[in-house]
Predict the 3D structure of the following.
Amino acid sequence: MSRIFLAKAYKKRAISRQRKDHAMKLARCVITSNDVVVYEDLRIKNMVKNHCLAKSINDAGWYQFRVWLEYFGRIFGRITIPVSPAYTSQECSGCGVIVKKSLSTRTHVCQCGCVLDRDHNAGINILNSGLGKAGQALTSVLDTGNASGESTSILVGANLLG
C-alpha cells in the first residue's frame, strides 16, 4: 500500500516540476526575445470557477507562466505591461467599434471592412492598449523629472513600470 502511495506522490511532483520548468523556459524565451511584453491581466482565480475550463486552465499553468514572465522581466530589464481584458476580442482594431460575438465565433467581421481572426484582433488591441500605457508612463516620467527637479533621460531598455 505504501509503495503505491509513494509512486502516486512522486508522479504528482514530477508533473508539477515539468509544468514549472516549461513555464520558466517559455517565459525566459519570451522575455529575452522581446523588449516589451504586453499581456492580458486575466483573473485566473475567477476563471477556474468555471468547472468546464478549470482543469485545462490549471494544467496549462497560466498563473505560473505570468509570475515567471514578470520575474524575468525585472531580471532582464524588460518592460512587461498588463492590460485589462475587457472587450479585447470584441473591439475592432481598425475603427474601435464594439462588435458583440459569442465565444464560438472565431472571425472578427466589422462594418468598417476589417476581417480578422478573433485572436489576431484581440492581440492587436492588447498591444495597442499596452503601448498606450507605456507611452503614458514615459510621458509622466519626462514631465515630472527626477527628485532633484532636473529632467530625466530615458535609456533604451529601461523598465518604465519598475
User: Anything to note?
Assistant: Residues 1-84 form one domain. The helical segments are 2-32, 44-47, 54-60, 62-76, 118-144.
